[in-house]
Amino acid sequence: xxxxxxxxxxxxxxxxxxxxxxxxxxxxxxxxxxxxxxxxxxxxxxxxxxxxxxxxxxxxxxxxxxxxxxxxxxxxxxxxxxxxxxxxxxxxxxxxxxxxxxxxxxxxxxxxxxxxxxxxxxxxxxxxxxxxxxxxxxxxxxxxxxxxxxxxxxxxxxxxxxxxxxxxxxxxxxxxxxxxxxxxxxxxxxxxxxxxxxxxxxxxxxxxxxxxxxxxxxxxxxxxxxxxxxxxxxxxxxxxxxxxxxxxxxxxxxxxxxxxxxxxxxxxxxxxxxxxxxxxxxxxxxxxxxxxxxxxxxxxxxxxxxxxxxxxxxxxxxxxxxxxxxxxxxxxxxxxxxxxxxxxxxx
Amino acid sequence: xxxxxxxxxxxxxxxxxxxxxxxxxxxxxxxxxxxxxxxxxxxxxxxxxxxxxxxxxxxxxxxxxxxxxxxxxxxxxxxxxxxxxxxxxxxxxxxxxxxxxxxxxxxxxxxxxxxxxxxxxxxxxxxxxxxxxxxxxxxxxxxxxxxxxxxxxxxxxxxxxxxxxxxxxxxxxxxxxxxxxxxxxxxxxxxxxxxxxxxxxxxxxxxxxxxxxxxxxxxxxxxxxxxxxxxxxxxxxxxxxxxxxxxxxxxxxxxxxxxxxxxxxxxxxxxxxxxxxxxxxxxxxxxxxxxxxxxxxxxxxxxxxxxxxxxxxxxxxxxxxxxxxxxxxxxxxxxxxxxxxxxxxxx
DNA sequence: GTGAAAGCGCTAACAT
DNA sequence: ATGTTAGCGCTTTCAC
Lengths: 347, 347
What we know:
Two copies of one chain form a homodimer. By secondary structure, chain A is of the alpha/beta class. Chain A folds into three domains: 17-60, lambda repressor-like DNA-binding domains (434 Repressor (Amino-terminal Domain), Orthogonal Bundle), CATH 1.10.260; 74-171 and 305-331, Rossmann fold, CATH 3.40.50.2300; 173-303, Response regulator (Rossmann fold). The first copy, chain A, has helices spanning 17-24, 28-35, 43-56, 62-67, 85-99, 117-126, 140-146, 173-187, 202-217, 234-246, 259-271, 305-321; strands spanning 74-79, 104-109, 131-135, 154-157, 168-171, 192-195, 227-228, 253-256, 281-286, 299-302, 329-332, 335-337. In chain A, the strands form two sheets. In chain A, strands 2-1-3-4-5-11 form a six-stranded parallel sheet, with helices on one face. Mean pLDDT of chain A is 89; it is low at 1-12. The interface between A and B is large, with 72 and 71 residues. Chain A binds a DNA duplex (16 and 16 nucleotides) through helix 2 and helix 4.
């Protein structure tokens, strides 16, 4: 690890509790009590202190508080990156919910620490934050193992943890995929392609399973040639779709494991001179904001993205309030959103 | 200010430099020196320390470092919210650039502190972060006044500061607007509407000025009836466009001060049964990712969003490295991106 | 109910 | 080149 050379002290000429104590004529531990929410302070004293603080423009120094054993009132959010409608919607929910609390947000993007996740997480948890929110953590194992104590508060967003009981919020991936596939089936499609997500993520395999189950339920054999690996990204969806179209038996419909992939598929289909949904129907998963903006508007399975973020925060705060609280998993419902990208097959 | 009641200590059972010092058989200030990048440490000692640290799994505690007068290696980012393609692109640039440095990012959204901006900023600057990035700060004045010291490092993104010399990165708003309007003019349009942004922002007035200048340059009288106030949001653009269409003289083209507004305009136009670009042309500003996804694809003025974020970070790091560095303003070029939402007028 | 004092993990003089 | 020591601003015993 390289570190910045320390050339200069930060300018720290701020008002501290000592100043406030002087101004209010009390000891500085009293000031501390007032601001840390300690209950047994005389009303008069409290008022004096608060007034003095306001007069001076005092604001608490979170690092000092945290160092001294209190809380930093900061929660960490670990995401791959923010350049993704799916994630920014969840972040929006997180932000909204956090705004109702006294917590601030520290944003960590993992892409910069590929291969050093453990170090990174340790640093984060060791440092500043009271708890951690992990969104689709690709290397869940590494992350969690690195947590400094068994009971460091964290919650997993949209990723199951098979190793230990982890507080988790996710959605009905299997059911959503089942419903998407059934919808296509109901439209009359028989050859339905599936573009997977990142196969190491539980959401991806759950969706694949849902797709399979729906086909089987309709007594349609699952054709491995119609299942093709994607990566949850637009370009991956594009490439996969191209390969799918080049196969001898072309699907009349495609279910992409997320909207981003579906966008790529849309592009690929058009590039082959085919029309959507006339020649091939496309359905996605997520319902990110862009889904209703693209042309044609994407039929998709909606995840309550904002709500996911909110729930994640609530679970974390619960755990922060009561460390004994045991891990639980909240699974939110998905919902089919019918728009313009699906139609019955032509033939 | 309410604060969280402090029910429990954070579990802090982490390895400190004292442990490392013991393990390595040196004093703990030596360990500090090694990890804070101090130069004059014997190679042997350094190696011993690093090895001991690795063995123990030591990671630095940033709060303690920062409290003790060092740097936290965290920069703060103050944004209205992240739910906006414009902002998330800039954030992406910021994140990319930060990844090359040793800095982490603390994200603050202002919407939660409406009316208490000063307090909020003070708290931020007082606390943790070494410097601050302010994106389109609506209440620039309040923010800047609240900075604890005259020389607290900050940079303003896409907002001019008329009060004091502030390090700023922005784009050629005037020129971009001039070019957009000229393009429409060149297509043959005479009645060109303008949907403004948030009027208190310099970017908005600059764009309006550019629009006016282009018209004047083409000897077309600026018609106040064609200028209508928006708010940089989709819904605002939608509402403004509706009003514009209801005026006696309908514009044949509209320039929206940003893409989000343009999207709203698109919707409004369609809702009135008109076709784009046949009946009315639309041009935007920003070129957020969605601009090339909407239908029809939006012709717009591109801002180098990612680059803006990168430059902002670079400017801040410069300032952090050398506090004496004086304020400067970097203005990046915009560029016309022609897509499908503009055509010559019909009549 | 309030004050005094120790200490959180670290940096930065000041010594040696 | 390395050790010693005094804080940074705060919370939290422990006294009174």
